[in-house]
Write a structure and sequence with these properties.
alpha/beta; FAD/NAD(P)-binding domain; 2 domains; about 15% strand; disordered N terminus; disordered C terminus; binds flavin-adenine dinucleotide; binds 3-acetylpyridine adenine dinucleotide
Length: about 575
């Protein structure tokens, strides 16, 4: 493989500017740069629109932003020095600590010199004659590379609903995913929060703790939130973690959700409600995502799920003093964990405070934003500040912001008009030499993401190494492999309860997006086995092309047995 890393000199007709360009400098992009540059010796450039590393943790600076994954497993596992040198201060790290961790990793691995900050990729087109990607950025520059790795994040493109009159508001408004770097004061203000997803549930109790005059929460769908039970981590905790770190990480990497938590019981179907309550009570007291693995069939068996949901509904009602208010945040329209289940700290208690009110917008929908505030069908509410905790154009949104054009002029947007079609959630037919880290149709957001990120980055790096070692110029999944993977995704999702509710997993939060379940729900461990088997079988399902003049394919023919064995 050629090495030509001058960005200012345009690549020659034969040689691209870089062996690989990576878009994004979050968890995914940083590790991808390290693997390709430091382990394969390739010339690599990250293009990042922010002015620092961090991705999610750079952008989401809202009060209360904190990880739901436990800190000691929300980190890189590939480097012993990073593991030994970094000690997390709490069970769940706050946003500044995760950002600091990623800065530390970038510095320790000397990654910054190959990152171009403040540079947004606007378009990428595959040049079929030259066999390389031409990548355009918002400053009008163009770079070329043999490989394109998109590491743009699943939850990176903020979504603000298209409320009528939204620009007429005369107060301050913020989206949580683009929170300012300067502190925002709520002192003496009348504040609205729209949205009660994981973000709303974190920011609401924080705003209430300030000198805010009043807080009004606009809720469309209530959520089942389990207590996080955050606490500081002391020396004893760290001694124990360090003593068992290898096993903990190995278990996380070989589990269904990327967490080192053992599933405790197969089902609740054979238990009475009293037995379920007795069994769940200590798990609820323990808090966190460990609660999710109480029953193995939680997301596939309505009987189990209804019992768990009923338990959580009882906990919500218990937490709120006024029985009438208490009914509003109780979810009755969906099963627990079929929308992404948040963790909370004092969220429900918020509704016991006199200066907090809850508006159910399914009863009284938002009609419009006015210069003074928010008008619902039954009242006008005046505010100084509106906080949009309204989520993201998830999974495909960030990728489709970029005008990506593959072979025969096909754009990714056209290709995915009816929903994502990928092979393994890593690649797409018609888009040679392009890889996506935690792309749609991979476990991604259904997991502790650093685990899924590491699996993908390693797989992509191994694939590129294989191509280099075997003098292969192009890699592209076959149409058949992609069709089979897409069908497999739909079949697995169809057997779960996830598809019984509108959610961002289903693309339903964005008007006009096709309704389709977007992550792969078959489990991190099963998925990892599949992608490793594909690699072991010399990239089964991919076409590999030796040279650009060589139209005959040299690579493997598609044999989709890996999916059939599922
Ligand atoms: P990101 O961190 O999203 O990074 C993508 C980067 O790409 C960004 O820096 C972005 O600026 C850049 N980019 C995008 N488009 C372009 C472009 N066109 N040009 C240039 N640059 C571009 N996951 C968990 O597992 N556990 C958690 O507890 C958890 N908590 C979360 C809390 C919040 C508030 C949010 C929003 C997400 C959370 N997640 C959590 C998911 C989180 O996104 C992942 O864990 C992880 O940080 C993703 O890393 P990434 O590098 O893949 O993507
Ligand atoms: O976004 P969301 P989020 N009118 O889409 C409501 C990760 N994350 O930022 O449910 C009124 O979940 C919408 O209502 P509904 C995590 O993966 C992790 O909270 O669509 N309301 C919902 O209540 C998470 O899942 C962590 O009916 C409207 C809210 O806005 C993902 O990021 C913390 C509306 C959006 O909820 C996204 O979470 C934070 C409208 N027109 C985030 N449109 C941790 O791990 C939307 N809503 C700690």
């Amino acid at each position: 493989m050629s090495v030509n890393n001058s960005h200012t000199d345009a690549g020659t007709a034969e040689e691209p500017d870089y062996d690989a360009v990576i878009i994004g400098a979050g968890f995914s992009g940083l590790y991808q740069l390290h693997r390709l540059r430091d382990e394969l010796g390739l010339s690599v450039r990250i293009l990042e629109k922010a002015d620092d590393v961090g991705g999610t943790w750079y952008w989401n600076r809202y009060p209360g932003a904190r990880c739901d994954s436990e800190s000691h497993i929300y980190c890189y596992s590939f480097n012993d020095d990073l593991l030994e040198e970094w000690e997390w201060s709490e069970r769940y790290p706050e946003q500044p600590e995760v950002l600091e961790y990623l800065r530390f990793a970038a510095d320790r691995l000397d990654l910054r010199r190959d990152i171009e900050f403040g540079t947004e990729v606007t378009a990428a087109a595959f040049d079929e004659d030259a066999g390389r990607w031409e990548i355009d950025t918002d400053d009008g520059s163009r770079v070329s590379s043999q490989f394109l790795v998109t590491a743009v994040g699943c939850l990176s493109e903020p979504y603000v609903p298209d409320f009528e009159g939204i620009d007429s508001f005369e107060g301050e408004s913020y989206h949580t995913g683009r929170w300012p770097h300067e502190p925002v004061s709520f002192e003496g203000k009348r504040v609205a929060v729209i949205g009660t997803g994981a973000t709303g549930i974190q920011i609401i109790p924080e705003i209430v703790e300030t000198d805010v005059e009043g807080l009004t929460v606009f809720q469309r769908t209530p959520n089942y939130a389990v207590p996080a039970r955050n606490r500081p981590l002391g020396d004893e905790d760290w001694t124990e973690i360090q003593a068992n770190y290898d096993e903990i990480l190995a278990e996380a990497h070989d589990s269904g959700f990327g967490f080192p938590f053992r599933v405790r019981r197969e089902t609740a179907a054979d238990l009475s409600m009293e037995e379920v309550e007795e069994y769940l009570e200590p798990r609820w007291k323990e808090g966190g995502f460990r609660f999710l693995v109480a029953f193995e069939d939680l997301t596939v068996n309505p009987d189990t799920n209804e019992k768990v949901s009923q338990f959580l509904r009882g906990k919500i009602r218990e937490a709120i003093d006024d029985p009438e208010v208490a009914e509003k945040p109780v979810p009755t329209d969906h099963y627990y964990a079929t929308k992404r289940p948040p963790l909370h700290t004092d969220y429900y208690d918020t509704y016991n405070k006199d200066h907090v009110s809850l508006v159910d917008v399914t009863e009284t929908p938002v009609e419009r934003i006015t210069p003074e505030g928010i008008r619902t069908t039954d009242a006008s509410h005046d505010f100084d500040t509106i906080v949009y905790a309204t989520g993201f154009d998830a999974m495909t949104g960030t990728l489709l912001q970029i005008d990506i054009q593959g072979t025969d002029g096909l754009t990714l947007e056209e290709k995915w008009a009816d929903g994502p079609q990928t092979y393994l959630g890593l690649s797409a037919h018609g888009f040679p030499n392009m890889f996506t880290i935690t792309g749609p149709q991979s476990p991604s957001v259904l997991s502790n993401m650093p685990v899924s990120i590491e699996h993908h980055v390693k797989w992509v790096s191994d694939a590129i190494e294989y191509l280099v070692d075997n003098d292969i110029r192009l890699i592209e999944p076959t149409k058949e492999a992609e069709v089979a993977w897409t069908a497999h995704n739909r079949e697995v999702a169809g057997g779960t309860l996830y598809t019984t509710v509108d959610s961002w997993y289903m693309n339903e939060n964005i008007p006009g997006k096709p309704t389709v379940f977007t992550p792969y729900p078959g489990g991190v461990d099963a998925y990892h086995d599949i992608i490793l088997e594909v690699a072991e079988k010399d990239y089964e399902g991919f076409e590999l092309t030796e040279s650009l003049g060589d139209l005959g394919r040299t690579g493997t023919r598609p044999n989709l047995s890996v999916m059939e064995s599922d």
